[in-house]
Amino acid sequence: MRFPKTYNLETIAQIIGCEFIGDPNFEVFGSNEIHVVQPGEIVFVDHPKYYDKALNSNASVILINKEVPCPEGKALLISDDPFRDFNKISTYFRPFQKSDNLISHSAIVGEGTILQPNVILGNNVTIGKNCLIHANVVIYDNTIIGDNVIIHSGTVLGADAFYFKKRETYFDPLISCGRVIIEDNVTIGASCTIDRGVTGDTTIGEGSKLDNQIQIGHDTVVGKMCLIASQVGIAGCVVIKNHVTIWGQVGITSGVTIGEKVSILAQSGVSKNLEQNKVYFGTPAEESREKLKQIAYLKRLTK
């Protein structure tokens, strides 16, 4: 998430009520998660296991729960609870905005686009030209949709990320302030759910086609010209390259990368990166020929 203007380190520290190490005038442009953080942005870390990763990331400002040596050219925000204070940043710069209309006054709809009855467009939604949005589609704040997009009934774009920190007596949500971006010529089936990014974007690439009842988690990037069949579940922070085919009821765990022109056969479970130009099957997913050989060998063992 980029801030509406450049802030200095001292001002950010005042907003969240914490100490800082570095030049008070150190420039801060935004906040982000570690896998997509850019120079000038804040990242948070609250476990010693990940200190080095955060301190050596692209982040220029590290929100951390221990005073450590500050890397050259960076700054630190010292907090007793970085998770809480990262949420403070999100709510300060992108607070919840109530909408009093089915179509927000700030929504922009392109020429030739058709909105069927009971479509809901949140604040700052942008939809391109010649789209067809069927009845009862809900599009949350800040979603961006390109040209020639079709979205079928019951689909929801932009719900919160499924991302929680376990406290002693409750689960504390990491507040979502990212977006969903749907590029040109995408088709999304009925009753799909695509969550917005925590601080970045969940993106569906140009020309991709989604069947019905698909779940796509926060900050996932689906490439161009992908086919995804019904009941596929994709966790957060997944990268799916171009021309990938995913058949029905495939499950993909968070943080993995699917190479270009991969095909994943039905009911497979993906728990690690998959190399490009291959067909995969099974749980855990392996190259389909190898997996089918294993199944054949197991059948022979009974004889």
Share of helix among residues?
10-25%
Mean model confidence by pLDDT: 96
Structural class: alpha/beta
Q: What's the number of extended β-strand segments? A: 34
The fourth-level CATH homologous superfamily of the largest domain is: Hexapeptide repeat proteins
Enzyme class: transferase
Organism: Paenimyroides tangerinum
GO biological process, one term: lipid A biosynthetic process
GO molecular function: N-acyltransferase activity; UDP-3-O-[(3R)-3-hydroxyacyl]-glucosamine N-acyltransferase activity
Features:
303 residues, alpha/beta, Udp-n-acetylmuramoylalanyl-d-glutamate--2,6- Diaminopimelate Ligase, Chain: A, domain 1, UDP N-Acetylglucosamine Acyltransferase, domain 1, ten-stranded mixed β-sheet, eight-stranded parallel β-sheet, 13% helix, Trimer_LpxA-like_sf, repeat, Hexapep, acyltransferase, EC 2.3.1.191
